[in-house]
Amino acid sequence: MRKAFRTPLASAISALLIVVGAPAAVTATAAADELDDYYRDALGKTGQELKDALNDIVSGQDVLTYSEVWEALKVTDEDPANAANVLLLYTGRSQSKDGNGGDVGDWNREHVWAKSHGDFGTAPGPGTDLHHLRPTDVQVNSARGNKDFDDGGEELADAPGNFTDDDSFEPRDEVKGDVARMVLYMAVRYEGEDSFADLEPNDEVGNGSAPYHGKVSVLLEWHQQDPPDAAEQRRNDVIHEQFQNNRNPFIDHPEWAASIYG
């Protein structure tokens, strides 16, 4: 894991432009050029060819241990209004960074791509990939379990706006797109080439231990309904610059979801 913060090129350029009084549009162009360079080998491709190119780009990331994930989440999911807290995925609650653990009221590490779907557990790699690990309330994490994602069910008393039934879980509207993009990232990143299962989305629920996660038609709808916001983009930057040295392409290029899975 990278211990020192590496200032993004775009941030450095932005600071310089503020000093010299250059137009803000130039800063945006610099950031776009930086992303174009990162995705150079994927630009202009579609379908399976695009998926293969993205796998090559995002693979080979710096890998964390599962214990290191605790500290990383305190950075990636820090509450911008309170640096002592993290924001929990399903509830949106701001909670002390030190309130992590396994007791009622604590926050813990949620695998958005359920770790039993492909049986990778907490092994370094998919089990510790920050692009799908988020802080969540312990009880809400337990209610979600390893269920696939779909619309419907009964609303959770501990997490209004989230719904669940016997075989599926529906997150609150504010993070539906986040969940979708995390699942799609995992399917692009883990293609069965590095001793882990080939993870793929499908249009079913109740996938159990198979290396599949559903429901892709619903996830694509959520992706459209809840596009990437500034907080999600910031999280992507932090993971890239401080921890894993890779990015979630569906945050940077939302249109690629339909090109690959639509």
Summarize the structure.
The chain has 10 helices and 11 strands.
Q: Provide the residue-averaged pLDDT.
A: 90
Q: Return the domain count.
A: 2
How many E strands?
A: 11
Order of helices and strands: HHHHEEEEEHEEEEHEEHHHH
State the share of residues found in helices, binned by percent.
Answer: 40-55%
Which structural category do the helix and sheet elements fall into? alpha+beta
**Ends apart, CA distance between termini:** 35 Å
Based on Cα principal axes, name the global outline. Answer: globular
Tell me which oligomeric state these chains represent.
single chain
By DSSP (H or I, 4+ residues per run), the number of helices equals: 10
Describe this structure in words.
Keywords: Endonuclease, Hydrolase, Nuclease. It comes from Prauserella marina. One of its GO terms (molecular function) is endonuclease activity. This is Endonuclease I. The protein is α+β, with helices and mostly antiparallel strands and 262 residues long. It folds into 2 domains: 1-38, no CATH class; 45-261, no CATH class. It is built from 10 helices and 11 strands. It has helices at residues 9-20, 24-38, 47-58, 66-76, 138-144, 176-189, 216-225, 230-244, 249-252, 256-261, and strands at residues 78-79, 82-87, 94-96, 107-111, 133-137, 148-149, 154-156, 159-164, 168-170, 200-201, 212-213. The strands form 4 sheets. Strands 6-9-8-7 form a 4-stranded mixed beta sheet. It is globular and about 45 Å long. The two termini are 35 Å apart. Mean pLDDT is 90; it is low at 1-27.
Sequence-ordered SSE layout with sheet pairings:
Layout (H helix, E strand, L loop, with lengths): L8 H12 L3 H15 L8 H12 L7 H11 L1 E2 L2 E6 L6 E3 L10 E5 L21 E5 H7 L3 E2 L4 E3 L2 E6 L3 E3 L5 H14 L10 E2 L10 E2 L2 H10 L4 H15 L4 H4 L3 H6 L1
Parallel strand pairs: 6-9, 10-11
Antiparallel strand pairs: 1-2, 2-3, 4-5, 7-8, 8-9
Helix pairs in contact: 1-2, 6-7
